[in-house]
Amino acid sequence: MLSTPQTNDIILYDQIEKLLAKFMRKLPSLKGLYVFEVVSRHLNFRLAADELGVTQAAVAQQIRGLEEELGLKLFERTPRKLTMTESAYRYAISVKQAFKILEEATEILHPTQPYLTISVPPSFAAKWLLPRLNEFAETYPDLDLRVVASPKVQNFGTDGIDLAIRLAAPPFENSVNADLLFENQVVAVANPLLIEKIGHPHDSKSLQSYTLIHDAHNFWPKYLQVAFPDHDLFNSKNIYFNQTSLAIDSAIAGQGIALTCLNFVKDDLEAGRLIRLNSITLDTGSGFYLISPRKPHQPPSLPLVKSWLMNSQ
């Protein structure tokens, strides 16, 4: 029987399908493996679900499915904690390495990235980064900076993030590089016209005349212990915001006294839109860090952007 090109193609495709079927039977779900890698880092379904943007139930379902595919138990579940089995611990090391190899191989396909994506908290973007972007554009006119302003902790691998700036404190995971940009030194600020109108709050009694402006960090209890130890926070007038930038804007509008990172309000202090209530600086033990994944193939623009950020204070 004579073979034709068409017949040969059919035979070849059939062989490929058989090989793929045999190969795929040996591999568990790629999605399940990715969820397993995230859970193995956090050892907590809730934190893993937050990173993945899914529910805890969805995470648990993926892990159960992976355990069924592998035919072994990966995690020991107790009411208070989640621990990996010895087999899962060894497996997690290999899975992490496999995903890292895939990530690096994919990045090599795009060596000339014309932009850099940076993830920052919204208040950092509004009060520190945004006023400096004109200078960045003048310094690096050929480099596009993509800013993702989100309180969510981004994933370097899946979200396309090259550099993140986060309020954090050491120690950090071995998989990332972390450089301190500046410490989170908190000060009390208010509109000078408001201080002039009501009078300077020099003690707990005079502070009662002011509205205390809160953000999600809730530094007021710690600050009052240092500055006004006799002040009753629960009997104060309060305004609550979920973003520091909104608390700062509220203070500028003369609505009360806000606590904020000193670096966020330096321009407002110099321009006279705000004044410091006193010389007290609250050391929070945290800072804003430049965080990037530790890997051999980095975007060529990453060192330039990191250097510019470090020198823009």
UniProtKB/TrEMBL annotation:
Family to which the UniProt record says this protein belongs: Belongs to the LysR transcriptional regulatory family.
Keywords assigned: DNA-binding, Transcription, Transcription regulation
Stored PANTHER family: HTH-TYPE TRANSCRIPTIONAL REGULATOR, HTH-TYPE TRANSCRIPTIONAL REGULATOR TRPI
Gene3D superfamilies: Periplasmic binding protein-like II (3.40.190.10), Winged helix-like DNA-binding domain superfamily/Winged helix DNA-binding domain (1.10.10.10)
PROSITE patterns the UniProt entry points to: HTH_LYSR
Pfam families, per the entry: HTH_1, LysR_substrate
Protein name: HTH lysR-type domain-containing protein
HTH lysR-type domain location: 28-85
